[in-house]
Amino acid sequence: MKSKYLDSKGQSLAEYSLLIALLLAACMLILAALGISIWDIYCIVARGLGFGGSCAHYFYDDFADLDAWDIAWGDWTTDGEQMCGGPGEGRIFTEIPADDYAVTINSATLRQGNGYGVYFRVTDTPRFDGYSFQYDPGYRGGAFIFRKWVNGRELWPPFAQTRARGYDWWETPRDIKVVADGNTFTASVDGQPILTASDDTYSEGGIGLRTWDRTVACFDSISVDAVR
Predict the structure, then answer these.
(1) Res 136 pLDDT > 50
(2) pLDDT computed for residue 26 by the predictor
């Protein structure tokens, strides 16, 4: 004869498991809305326990100085806390020892002008090949775009774009993330994916930043990490 107690105990365990699963799902949704990944939480805990070696950045710069960068063109300055580029055409690069990676820029602020770009998989600077993601209010009324570059020249038209008319482009700090994973590229703004594209021309290379025309843009920090 089957015990009612055992049935009740089994039912309680199932209910507890379901409740825990729902709580975990809710926490993951909240973290995603805040732009925080499970990997970020893991790394915070691991570093606190002294086991953060696997969480090391490929590259990190808080722009205390510009020693890590090759200024190929334009005016780039730092006040020790923030780097600014412009006005005018500007290009700045650094090498990255990886093929697939995620570039994260904290508090990128467009002060004036038509936009700024994030270079990735760049080789053979200063007349380089590679890609860029552009935060571009000057393109057809405002858009986020991916461009391909050959020998230092941008190809026309962009190979991916999404229009954003009426977007709050200027004087608003934005967190920008560009992920290059194989032949697929994803750009996010403030934790929200806004553009995905594919291209298999370039498989490796460094990163950089770009300004053009009357643009003045400032950046608090930049990091490059493994794709998770």
Answers:
(1) yes
(2) 75
Domain chopping of the chain, boundaries: 4-54, 57-225
Residues 6+ apart with CB under 8 A from 116: 85, 108, 110, 134, 135, 209, 210, 211, 215, 217
Rounded CA-CA distance 75/207 in Å is: 18
Q: Are 210 and 93 in contact (CB under 8 A)?
A: no
Phi-psi category of residue 85: left, alpha or beta, with phi > 0 → left and psi -120 to 50 → alpha:
beta
Largest CA distance in the chain: 84
Short-list 109, 224, 140, CA closest to 177: 224
d(CA 25, CA 27): 5
For residues 21 and 60, give the distance between their C-alpha atoms in angstroms, rounded to a whole number. Answer: 35
Local confidence band at 153 (pLDDT 50, 70, 90 cut-offs): very high
Q: Is the pLDDT of residue 34 over 70?
A: no
CATH 1.20.1740.10 fits 57-225, yes or no: no
- pTM value surpassing 0.85: no
Q: Decide if pLDDT at 176 tops 90.
A: yes
Q: How far is CA 17 from CA 11, 13, 21, 24, in A?
A: 10, 6, 6, 11
Alpha helices in the chain (DSSP H): 4-33, 38-48
